[in-house]
Each structure stands twice: as structure tokens, then as C-alpha cells.
Amino acid sequence: KAVVSTQSTGDGAWDVVNESANFWLSRVEWDGNNFVINNVMDPDEYHSDVNNSCFTNAAARLNLLFAVEAAERLGKIPDPRWAAVAQEKNGLKIPFDETLRYHPEFDGYTQGTVIKQASVVMLGYPLGSPMDDDVRKNDIEVYAKCTDKGPGMTYSMYCIGMLELDELATAENFFQVQFQNLRDPFRIWNEYPTYLGCTNFLTAIGGFLQSLLFGYLGLRVFEKKLQVKPFLLPKCTGVTYTGMQYCGERFNFEVKKDKFTVCRTTGNAFQLWQIEKDGQKWPLVTNKPVSLDLGQYEITMADGYELVY
User: Fold this and answer.
1) pLDDT for position 195
2) How many CB atoms lie within 10 A of CB 82?
3) Catalytic member of 19, 45, 72, 223
4) How far apart are CA 252 and CA 250, in angstroms?
5) β-pairing verdict for 226-228 and 297-301
6) What is the pTM of this model?
7) Is the per-residue pLDDT at 71 higher than 80?
8) Among 15, 54, 83, 262, which one has the highest count of C-beta atoms within 10 angstroms of its own C-beta?
């Protein structure tokens, strides 16, 4: 989610937020119980012209909520329909099977129907939609079983999801599947494992990089914190991630079997940073590494300081 401020964006950015929210208003209909969006192309390219694509509706809801937030920050008057459509109760429909505890890809989807690529699984990442762990796991397992041939970006999403759930063995299996799409002699990524030649499929490259940064480093970017939950990459003794940029600062991470190290490599004299977990805090002084046990941590501004964008 972009950070909207009067200083950095002006009306140009607001126009984008405003018009995108209004676009969703133009597409929703009321079915008597919820707002619905019919006749859309799901991220799964095997299914077009479907009603209430789970991913599409979840993304639209985030867009509308962000429009409300941005309006409040910029002193604009939000359209009251944005919040009405985005509300959880009787708002935009997100298909969910209460009995099987998973999200059908769209209205009328039958569990086991073959899909081309990741769709529902992206509710957890990158959308960050809240759900119980068993639902998150069910979504991954249900769709992994019926994914056809595995386009290059799909298994990275399954890998990231399982790492969120601490299912390391399953996550490693999904991580390794990605390499079926890698082609010698130039180590080029193809869309499918069966493709020959050196077509450089950037989506596959992007998926692989995300499985490293947002999977095994566990990176999550929020407005006021940078979250990390590192795991050691399979078949490695150590992995270093350099130059992670956040709010004008840079951080390096080194991950080993039981420990990881974080180092702030830039220094803004007006900002004090810290890494924290369960109420315990460690200061991040420029170029002074901090070594910690593996786990989930948050990098934030120290108390009494505000972020400068």
C-alpha cells in the first residue's frame, strides 16, 4: 500500500486513488445480502467471465478501504459508499465454504477443478487478508493439488504461504519445484517446466525473488514497521540479504541455522531505530550488527520519534 501524504503526492496521487475506488463502485451490484462483482477475469487464466472472484473482490475491498484512509489524511470527503461496500458484514462478498473451511476461487467453483496459476492463495500474501491458520493451509493444499503444470510464479506463492505457517518441509518442496522452470546454459526462467529455449519469463523471476525476500526472509512492509521472520534457505549454511530499504534507511540481514544478524547501514541523526520482539527491544545503531535467535521481529522507530518519509 502506498503512503499518501499532502507533502509527497499532491492531487495527482489522490486522483488515482479516487478514480480506482469509483471504478469498483461502478462494477458492484447488490444481491440482497452482499455487494457482488460479476463477469470478471480471475487471476487464474483458465477461468474467465466468473462471478465474485475471491482475489478480485478482496483486492477491490482493500482499494476501497485505502481510499477512505487516504481521504481522511488529505482532508478530502470520502464517498460514503466506499466504506459501505468494503465493510465486512454485508459488504463485498468474499466466497467462503464454512464446511470445508476454504475459499472457493469464485461463485460455483468445485473443489478439485484444475486451475492454471495462483489465485486464492494470494489472499494471504500479498493481500494480507486476515484468516485462521487452518483456512490458510487449506487454501494452499486445495489449490496446489489441482494446479496444472505450474507456471513459474505459482509455487513461490505456495512456498511463502507455508513459511507463514511454519510448515518448513512443505515450503521447501514448493521452493524446489520452481527450479524446474530454470534453463541452462544462461539460467533463464521459462513459464512452464516443459518449455525449451531461453524465453526470459520475468514473472517467474519475480516469483522466485519473492520466495526469498517475502518467504525465507519473511519480509513484510507496513506503514510504521518492517517485519521479518527469517528461515535459513534450504541446503545453505548461511544467506545474506543486503540493502533492504525502508523509509530512507537500509538494513542488511544474515541468516544462519539458529541465528540471524541485522545491521542498519545508514544513519539519520534525527531517527533512532530498534528491532523488537515480545516487548524486548534492541537498538539499531549504524553499522553495529545485532545478533538474535530466529523468530518474528519488528523493526520500528524508537519511542518518541516519528517516521520521516
Assistant:
1) 76
2) 22
3) 45
4) 7
5) antiparallel
6) 0.92
7) yes
8) 54
